[in-house]
Design brief:
Elements: H1 2-18, E1 21-33, E2 43-54, E3 57-68, E4 73-87, E5 95-108, E6 114-128, E7 135-145, E8 151-162, E9 165-174, E10 183-193, H2 195-198, E11 204-214, E12 224-234
Antiparallel strand pairs: 1-2, 1-12, 2-3, 3-4, 4-5, 5-6, 6-7, 7-8, 8-9, 9-10, 10-11, 11-12
Length: 235
Amino acid sequence: MRFVLTFLIVPLCCFNLHAKMLWSDASFTYLNGSNYQVGDNKREVYTFEHAAKTSWGDSFLFIEQLQSNNGDKQIYGEISPRFELLQLDNSVADGLFVATTVEFSQQNLHDGAGSEFTHYLLGLGTKFTPEYFTFVNLNLYKRFNDSGDSNYQLTLAWALPFDNWLYDGFIDYASAVSGKSPTMNFTSQLKYNLASLLSVDTKVFLGIEYVFWNDKFGIDGVNERNANLLVKVHF
């Protein structure tokens, strides 16, 4: 796991250092929910996120620690740089990207068992900026899974601000592989920016995250409907 993180983070940092940084954003999120599926149903989740736009493309990463009520612990993360191939003028889409993602996980169960995996995703992506939205990104990947056969994934992500509210999230659809069903994860957050009430300059959100996940992890019939309390601070 340590080698994987080094392998992932160093190239991404070099990409950002050698490209002109147009903007970047970092945040920390706390989640608390009690209807998780697969493992203990009560969990706290601590998440660090970083997003950036550079002259070469864009990048997004998050690393989260999941702590279950029964003592299970998991580190999960995704690192997703996209490299711009071309800009599209007078088009519905803003550009075409080479889209990449690396997923990694390390899990330690309360009974002493554990597991880890690393999956690599490669494909094409694009970006839209419809009215009212901050962004709408669409990526189509081929997944190279070290825990099974390769398959395909379609990912849609968006951010829609209104007044002091923000509604954002993603939809992942992954095709079936041998022994696993296709899976669809629709996770979104509705949150209110408390910055003006707290008299602070940074964004401080309070809200809810809702997970609508069919056939979680490709397990047929395991459907998660999970509301989480959310607190998110940008810095």
